[in-house]
Amino acid sequence: MTPFEAIRGVPNACQVLPTVITGGQPTREHLQALAKSGNAIVVDTREPMEPRAFDEPALVRELGMEYRLIPIGPHSLSDATLEAIRSTLAEAGERPVFVHCGSGNRVGGALIPVLMLDQGMEEEDAVDTAMRVGLRSAELMEWGLGYTRRQRAT
């Protein structure tokens, strides 16, 4: 089973890049299947105070995977947050990475710089991909695009 097949059924599940899969909130069963599919890194972009049906960090670690919390919310729409996402994906190498939030909306905004700066996508294609991932917020889209423009200007 591939990592993408493992998370099938997660809201807005999407295979964005060969090693990057995205989606909304996974269940215990999704994470158990993901663990069986390979040595994955799980990147949770929800804020720490958001309600959770189970202790995701503990379960991910118990299953032998790596858990990273990179919260995206009103107070974390910063360049540092996007740099943390980019560096996590770059450091993963060939390891599968599952990046999720509650619905895929935040993940979509955060992936725009990855798609444009690290994968060479044009803006329209990156935004289309982000929308396929679950992006629905104009504010999150502008956050990702603004960071990308600033990086290109330097």
Structure in a nutshell:
The chain has a single domain, classed as Protein tyrosine phosphatase superfamily (Protein-Tyrosine Phosphatase, Chain A). Helices cover 50% and strands 13% of the residues.
Structure explained in plain terms:
With 154 residues, the protein is an alpha/beta fold. It has one domain: Protein-Tyrosine Phosphatase, Chain A (Alpha-Beta Complex). It is 50% helix and 13% strand. β1 and β2 form a beta hairpin. α4 packs across α5, α5 runs antiparallel to α6 and α5 runs parallel beside α7.
List keywords for this structure.
154 residues; alpha/beta; Protein-Tyrosine Phosphatase, Chain A; 5-stranded mixed β-sheet; 5 strands; 50% helix; 13% strand
Mean pLDDT: 96
Cα end-to-end separation: 42 Å
CATH class: Alpha Beta
Q: Spans with pLDDT under 50 lasting ≥5 residues?
A: none
**Oligomer type:** single chain
What is the level-2 CATH architecture name? Answer: Alpha-Beta Complex
Structural class call reads: alpha/beta
Q: What's the CATH H-level superfamily name?
A: Protein tyrosine phosphatase superfamily
Q: In percent, how much strand structure appears in the residues?
A: 5-15%
Query: How many extended strands?
Result: 5
Strand order of the largest sheet: 1-2-5-3-4
* Number of helical regions: 7
Domain count: the total is 1
CA radius of gyration is 14 Å
Outline type: globular
Quick one: biggest sheet? 5 strands, mixed
**Topology pattern, helix = H, strand = E:** HEEHEHEHEHHH
Q: Estimate the helix proportion, in percent.
A: 40-55%
